[in-house]
Amino acid sequence: DRQTLVAVLQFLRRSNLRESEEILRREARLLGDDLGNVATVATSSPGVAAVAAVPPGKGEARGGCGVGPSSRREPRDVGSPCVPRSVGGSPLCWDTRVGVSAVVVEDQPDVSAVLSAYNQQGDPTLYEEYYSGLKHFIECSLDCHRAELSQLFYPLFVHMYLELVYNQHESEAKSFFERFHGDQECYYQDDLRVLSSLTKKEHMRGNETMLDFRTSKFVLRISRDSYQLLKRHLQEKQNNQIWNIVQEHLYIDIFDGMPRSKQQIDAMVGSLAGEAKREANKAKVFFGLLKEPEFDVPLDDEDEEGENEEGKPKKKKPKKDNVGSKSKKQDPNAPPQNRIPLPELKDSDKLDKVMNMKEAARRVRLGPECLPSICFYTFLNAYQGLTAVDITDDSSMIVGGFADSTVRVWSVTPKKLRSVKTAADLSLIDKESDDVLERIMDEKTASELKILYGHSGPVYGTSFSPDRNYLLSCSEDGTVRLWSLQTFTCLVGYKGHNYPVWDTQFSPYGYYFVSGGHDRVARLWATDHYQPLRIFAGHLADVTCTRFHPNSNYIATGSADRTIRLWDVLNGNCVRIFTGHKGPIHSLAFSPNGRFLATGATDGRVLLWDIGHGLMVGELKGHTDTIYALRFSRDGEILASGSMDNTVRLWDAVKAFEDLETDDFTTATGHINLPENSQDLLLGTYMTKSTPVVHLHFTRRNLLLAAGAYSSQ
User: Fold this and answer.
1) What does the alpha-carbon distance between residue 675 and residue 596 come to, in Å, rounded to a whole number?
2) What are the pLDDT digits (tens) for 443-469?
3) Which of 285, 288, 400, 639 supports an S-S bond with 651, CB 3.0-4.6 Å?
């Protein structure tokens, strides 16, 4: 908004940053004091106000670097590209000059300017009267309008309380809080606890929650009839105080049609900034899968023997051809093959794909009548504190990240972990021999467990590369480390986050990876660049979990602001915002066909989303604690969820996604009708003795592996 833009310009002038001021004026097309065509102003991570002058129509995230806390320094030359050009022939040659530039200013947005909107506008003693008057009006309105208008209670309560505190009416503020805080919905309790600690004007200055609430407009979705009713009431009563707050601090997304029911509203609200605007979920998303490269699947040895013995081919052969040809048709919803540069397949990758296809031919077809077996890996005596787990795609290795800052890798097959020989020994090897890959390994180093040292804080996320040559780990120390699984040493430390990094994940194609942390942004990296390629800014609290879409063109992030966002890797734009969870998000899983997303949070609910239409399509209730693990089976028939309540639950994904109501009306208004009971989708609940479930993984043959650390209490 203009106010914030002017405040930033004044701040730059006071700080003698004339050059930056000029650049910002130019970008925002502000000449002198003319406030003509003001561009969008976005405030990103808590450490830094990144003021991006964006041409109308651009998304929220800024492509390129220099937006996060890592760039606390004088503004750089705005025109310069942010991404280093490709190194060593790597496939990435992006330049992030997309008409968006970022000017980095001091630690916080000029707080006094942000708060000045709370200057006295009414008699403090009448605030309770105003609020109770509105409350009485809403509670006496017709049932169909009451549920929608009740959404106003929480944002108005917060803004009126903050206005009283800012104008130093402390006793009135306290009385106002005590009288009305009990009326708010239960899912806002944590926010109200933070709010109750803000009792003086000074407390407001450094408080992030406060600033977020003030700078991001709270979004309410209300039908036109309900809105007209509210407007008429406030104008009749001449209740300017509340009308001013509605106009200045709330964004009312008005739709034509029937008002929504209490159930429909409750399903969608609960995030820090209200619901998502419907416009936010309108962009086209290419959710289809990329075409697999074609190559022949050689027969197994035993198949060939079978042929010789019987004189006719075995029945398995056509099945394998099907597996090879399954992905030959181009998916109409898939992105263009070259939309983002992906690494080329090496011979070893092709070999692995062939193995994968052979395994797929023997895969168990799951369903309500045929549930998977579950193999649980329990970490016993994990006094170091298990904080993260990952399992390789071929299920041969498992890694644990621990609170004592170590990363431990185990082999879960009889094959032990070996390092490559020293350079001197390698020079003696005959490089032409057939078994050269076996010879380079040093038998003396063989062991079931390797411990990797390097981080200086708890390790919160781990991820194996698809080719099993590398391992990522992220930590409280603010770094993401890349480890070699050939030498079991650290190759790179990526420094970009200034605060703890909560999660990291490799792209399904390798080379790229994503990280998300306490600085509220997610970063996209490539293994051969030490700077991030993209910075995804927009969340209002920590980014707690990250996931790549199966086609690698999109990234999903879950946050403590109780929203899930989907970002486009190509241009850094946010293309979906999903609201509905009532607590921080801790797990994400894309369905194998790329159409759906499952999310789990501290509220114990699993929510299902249709990515193409941008709608919630299901809610799975059953868990009683935070859901830390979600995974679809290999063919998408079953969704497994693992929770801190020590259970693994299996859900019927086919049934959950069939007969979806995605007609034009539903899509236009966001009206969703969730079935009252999700128990008919629950296929099984499996309890551990006392082990919270932190990771789930389906093997290539659909055996479910689960992992967690035994807790004695």
Assistant:
1) 18
2) 888 899 999 999 999 999 999 999 999
3) 639
195/199 Cα distance (integer angstroms): 8
Nearest to 78 by CA among 20, 32, 38: 20
Say how far apart CA 399 and CA 684 lie, in whole Å.
Answer: 27
Q: What is the DSSP string of 606-658?
A: EEEEETTTTEEEEEEE--SS-EEEEEE-TTSSEEEEEETTSEEEEEEHHHHHT
99 assigned to some structural domain: no
CA 380/CA 299 separation, integer angstroms: 42
Q: What is the pTM of this model?
A: 0.78
| Count of domains observed in the chain | 3
Question: Residue 323 has what pLDDT?
Answer: 41
Contacts of 575 (CB under 8 A, 6+ apart): 59, 281, 283, 285, 554, 566, 567, 568
Q: Which of 490, 519, 527 is nearest to 502 (CA)?
A: 519
**Separation of alpha carbons 436 and 674, rounded Å:** 58
**Which of 244, 260, 276 is at the close of a domain?**
260
Nearest to 20 by CA among 66, 81, 59: 66
In the predicted model, is pLDDT for residue 672 greater than 70? no
Phi-psi region of 395 (alpha: psi -120 to 50; beta: other; left: phi over 0): left
Of 208, 238, 260, the last residue of a domain is 260
- Reported as a single tens digit per residue, the pLDDT across 515-529 is 999 999 999 999 999
Among residues 62, 28, 102, the alpha carbon closest in space to that of 538 is found at: 62
Domain range spanning residue 676?
Answer: 374-385+466-663+671-708
Q: Which residue is associated with the tokens 């405040």?
A: 7
Per-residue model confidence as pLDDT tens digits over 581-611: 999 999 999 999 999 999 999 999 999 999 9
What crossing angle do the helices spanning 240-249 and 224-236 adopt, rounded to 10°? 140
- Least confident range from 54-58, 355-359, 612-616, 657-661: namely 54-58
Query: 417, 447 in Cβ contact below 8 A?
Result: yes
d(CA 376, CA 697): 10
